[in-house]
User: Fold this.
Amino acid sequence: MMQNKKPRIIIITGSIGTGKSTAVNILKQKGFQVLDSDKIVHEGYNVGNKMYNEVLDYFGKDIINTDGTINRQKLGQIVFNNENSLKKLNEIVHSSVFDELVDGIKNCKDKVIFLDIPLALEEKENIMKFNLNYDEIWLVYVNSDIQKERLKQRAISENKNPDDVLSIMHRQIPIEKKRQMVDEVIMNEGTIEDLQIEIEKLLNKKCLS
Assistant:
C-alpha cells in the first residue's frame, strides 16, 4: 500500500478587524478542512485534557472552581503581573496547540489543509520552534483605515470602549507590514460576496477548487 501524500499546508491569518473568521467560514463551507488554533486553546482548558493538567500542575489548585474547571480570571490575575508565570503559561499553551496542529496534519487525508492561526506572523518563532512545517501563508487583508473603522463600529455594537479595541490592533504587526510577509493576500474591503469571489479566484489560481 502506498502512503498518503502529505497535504499542502496553508496557514490563514489576519489581524483583528480584517474578517479572517468570515474567510475561514467560507473555506469550511467549500468543504476544506480547517484546524482552528483558538478552538484548540479553548478546548485545551477543558477538565482532564493534557493542557488543563499541565496548567493545574504548575499553577496549583487555587485556580480551580468548585466544579473542577479552571478559573480563567484567577489565572489571568496570576500571570498579569508575573513575567515568569506568563512565560510558563504561554509555553504550555503553545506546546499543546502545535502538538494538536501537527497531529491534525498527520491525520489529514485531503490534498490541502488550512491552519487558522490568527497571529501566525507574530508567532513565527514558535511555528519554527515546534517544527510546524507549512507551504504558504495567506493573509486576509483590509487597509488600516477600514480596519480601524470596523473595530470602532464593532466596539460600539458590543458596548466596549473603542480605544481598548484599537489598542489590541496597535499591539499587532501593522497590516501593511504583514502584507509584505506572506505568500498570498485575500482582499476583504467589500461585501461577503466580494470576499467569496476573491477566495474562489485564489483557489482557482492554486488549482484547489
